[in-house]
Design a protein that fits this description.
Elements: E1 10-19, H1 24-35, E2 39-47, E3 50-58, H2 63-77, E4 80-87, E5 97-104, H3 109-121, E6 125-133, E7 138-145, H4 149-163, E8 166-171, H5 174-178, E9 181-184, H6 195-203, H7 206-217, H8 223-232, H9 240-248, H10 255-264, E10 268-276, H11 277-287, E11 291-300, E12 303-309, H12 315-329, E13 336-340, H13 346-351, E14 354-358, H14 362-367, E15 370-372, H15 380-383, H16 388-397
Parallel strand pairs: 9-10, 9-13, 10-11, 13-14, 14-15
Antiparallel strand pairs: 1-3, 1-4, 2-3, 5-7, 5-8, 6-7, 11-12
Helix pairs in contact: 1-2, 3-4, 6-7, 6-9, 7-8, 9-11
């Protein structure tokens, strides 16, 4: 009795190109079936009606005959075929596997060239590319191997800023598929603008409050101190202004689509805000968030006193809330996605497995895992491997017509 050979078997790489039409793939595989070969790998793409089908199969005894029949099949389909003989399977992808998402509006060829060039400079390889969205932004996902994710991110972030595009670099691992909790900042992230400035407008001190808010978000002021100073300026404001501000709040484009789509997939949502629960709790209920935490304004005799009740939800408080929500759900912190824009979000972004700076201040973009600088929150789903076509199809199946752009 002899041992089975462990030497790699001869294989054929078959590449078919031409105009796509129904029955192409079945015709090719019927021809392969007649030759009795085994399929080792295959990939097919269609770009503007042009098909490229690649198939790796075991080599039959009569390679010439298979070659002849494949050429005949291709000719009958009006397509071209190439057949290359070799040995064994594809080489395994090198260690250091990452997912790179490029987002542009538009995504120019020069930007793709710059990013691809930096990947090559690092000695890494692009193994696969696919489009995730074509409108209102173009999003392309690249599978890259051969270099540690952190080193890749450092270089690609530099290049993306030079090219004026967004780039997200994540480690390719099971944790990406296991993400099930999204923790979001509210002001200037989930909603447009700052609630405290909207309240200040009703109190007649918007400009003064806005200056302090901007400095705090850049990390130039202690958040708790700045919050108390700003809230003090609201003393005497009628509490009905909170209702007015809630009615005035506008969600960022794509917010409802993102929440609706990801909740279908079992994601949980939490908002953690340095703003005020009188407004954020109502937004959370409207969107179906599972958790919400924010500051409580003191109201006496129907008027704001200019004081905050209880502990302030600051930079450390946001990170603590993320950990608390994750623990309650039994979710590892590395499977949490955090989204924010200001300096008080930094600890929260660092605590999560994926921290996303959304239209953020420079100090936040420098520190976060990735940055998104287009005004569409649903873009974040492309970082999770969800394409726009899948989002639209899911909405259609539920009887919901997805608007253009997604909202």
């Amino acid at each position: 009795m002899t041992e089975a050979s462990t030497a790699p078997a001869d294989t054929l790489l078959i590449t078919l190109t031409g105009e796509d039409r129904p029955g192409v793939t079945s015709s090719v595989f019927e021809t392969l079936a007649a030759a009795g070969v085994a399929v080792i790998d295959l990939e097919q793409i269609v770009l503007r009606g042009r098909l490229v089908l690649g198939v790796l199969v075991t080599a039959p005894r009569d390679t010439r005959r298979l070659r002849s029949t494949l050429e005949s099949t291709a000719a009958g389909l009006g397509m071209q075929v190439s057949i290359e003989r070799g040995t064994g399977d594809n080489a395994a992808r090198p260690e250091g596997r990452s997912l790179v998402t490029l987002i542009g509006a538009p995504l120019k060829a020069a930007a793709v060239a710059g990013i691809a060039g930096r990947i090559a400079d690092l000695g890494a390889n692009i193994d696969r590319m696919q489009r995730m969205a074509r409108y209102p932004v173009t999003a392309i996902e690249l599978q890259v191997s051969g270099v540690p994710t952190d080193a890749l991110r450092t270089e690609l972030v530099k290049e993306s800023r030079k090219r004026g595009v967004d780039v997200a670099v994540q480690e390719s691992s099971l944790l990406r598929r296991g993400a099930r909790l999204i923790v979001m900042d509210v002001d200037s992230t989930l909603v447009q603008g700052e609630v405290i400035e909207m309240l200040a407008a009703h109190a007649g001190c918007e400009a003064e409050v806005a200056l302090v808010t901007e400095a705090a978000m850049r990390g130039e002021l202690d958040f708790e101190q700045s919050l108390r100073e700003r809230v003090a300026l609201l003393a005497g404001l009628d509490a009905s202004a909170l209702d007015k501000v809630y009615d005035e709040v506008q969600l960022n484009p794509g917010a409802r689509t993102m929440v609706r789509t990801l909740k279908r997939l079992g994601y949980r949502f939490a908002m953690v805000s340095g703003g005020f629960s009188a407004v954020t709790d109502r937004i959370a209920a409207d969107l179906g968030f599972d958790y919400a935490r924010a500051n409580d304004l003191e109201v006496v005799d129907g008027k704001l006193t200019g004081r905050v009740v209880g502990a302030v939800v600051d930079r450390a408080g946001k990170a603590a809330a993320l950990r608390e929500f994750a623990a309650e759900l039994g979710i590892d912190e590395k499977s949490v996605i955090a989204i924010g824009d200001g300096a008080n979000d930094l600890d929260m972004l660092n605590a999560a497995g994926l921290g996303i700076a959304y239209n953020a201040k420079p100090v936040v973009q420098e520190a976060a895992d990735t940055a998104v600088n287009v005004p569409y929150l649903d873009t974040i789903m492309y970082l999770l491997g969800i394409s726009r076509e899948e989002i639209v199809a899911a909405d259609a199946a539920a009887g919901f017509v997805t608007p253009e752009p997604l909202v």
